[in-house]
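Hi R.,

Here's the input for the zinc ion complex you asked about:
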Amino acid sequence: MLRSEQPAKHLPFFKLTEACGSGQCPLCRLRSDALESYLESLVYQGVNDRRFRAEFDRTYGFCTYHEHAFLAKQDRLAIVITHRELLARALAQTVPDSAPECSLCKLLEDTEQQYLETTEAYLHDDELRQAFEDSPGLCLPHFRKLRARLRETPSWLEELQQARLESALAAVDEYIEISNYSLSDNLSRLSKPHLRRLPDTVVGMLFGYNPDQDAGR
Ligand SMILES: [Zn+2]
Ligand SMILES: [Zn+2]
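And here is the predicted structure with zinc ion in place:
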């Protein structure tokens, strides 16, 4: 694509390139940022918002994962206020049989789609490419979702993803080998940053960095 055909750069582009510097898959990071800012605004001002409350009641709260994410915000009053109606309905036995879609899951799904579109739109942009090359690459679920949208995946991206998997595999082998020796100086080698974070990196790379994300399996 010619440079002149590329869309003008707006906020989503800059958020995407910034997320490449987060030390994890940029799409995973944008998803967790969206969750964080939603819950922050909910806790600080949203629980009395009438539209939010109507939707929260209609969907009978969030899914289990996002209920616990809300709970972890430690705003006891917000939790009590928003769940009063749900408790009353449990008492009246009018809880829906099948759980309606969690509005937070939907929001995060939309956010993910929006950034997949942004990634696709700028894949031939040098600035985005550089940001990706300086990043840990995409997690496998996001790479597969992106690839499913593209007619052709640029070779630099395929190579980048392969290189990230190869270095993770080499680090896993290094980790296992060091663990086979019980000498204390060998074990201290496991505290090297890339090895200390290795279990998180491996699970993040293969399944995504968020526990609430659809790995597409
Ligand atoms: Zn990801
Ligand atoms: Zn949810």
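One thing worth noting: The first helix runs from residue 11 to 19.

Cheers,
M.
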